[in-house]
Amino acid sequence: MPEDPSPTPFDQPWEYEISFPRDPRGPWVVRSALQAVLTAHGLGPLVDRAQLLTSELTTNSVRYSEHPVRVRVRWDHPVLRVSVSDANPELPGVLKPDTEDECGRGMFILEVFADRWGGFSLDEGAFGLGGKTVWFELGLGGPTPVPALAA
Fold first, then answer.
1. Which of 47, 93, 120, 144 sits between 20 and 30 A of 58, alpha carbons compared?
2. pLDDT-flagged residues of the chain (< 70)
3. What is the pLDDT of residue 129?
4. How many domains does the chain have?
C-alpha cells in the first residue's frame, strides 16, 4: 500500500478548480471553498480580498451568462491567481459607479483591490460555446498598490 503523500510545500505551485451551474448559490459555494483552500495552504492573509473579488466575478457570470461557470485558483509563490470563465464572450468594462447606483461596482472593486487583473476571450472550442475568462492576482507580502482609478 502506497504511503500518503506529504503536504505540498508552501513555495510549490498548486491549482484547484470548481465548476458550478448557473445558480445564484454558486458564488457562495465558491467563496466557502476558496476560504477552505487558502486557509489549508496557509494563505489566510489573502482570504478576505480573494473572496470579495471572486464573489464579484462569479456573481457577474451567474447574472450575465446562460451556462455553467468555472473557477480556477492557482498558487505560484508568492502570487495567487483566480480565474473565472463563462460562456458570455463580452468582456466587462470598469466604470466608476455613482454613489446612487445599486449595481455596477464589481469591476471597480476588482480595479481597486486586485494587485493585477485582466481578461480574454475564449475560442469556440474551449467551452464548446466560446466565452471569456476574467482573472485577478493577489501577491503575498508588501502593501497593496492603490490604482490611479481609485485615487
1. 144
2. 93-106, 124-129, 142-151
3. 64
4. 1
Residue 121 belongs to domain with CATH number: 3.30.565.10
Q: Is residue 49 part of a domain?
A: yes
Provide the residue range defining the domain that includes 99. Answer: 22-139
According to the model, what pLDDT value does residue 108 have? 85
Residue 144 lies in a domain: no
d(CA 61, CA 39) in angstroms, rounded, equals 25
81 falls within a domain: yes
Question: What's the pLDDT tens digit per position in 31-72?
Answer: 999 999 999 999 999 999 999 999 999 999 999 999 999 999
- b/e per residue 106-117 (b: at least 16 CB within 10 A): bbbbbbbbbbeb
Rounded CA separation 98/75 (Å): 35
- 54: helix, coil or strand? helix
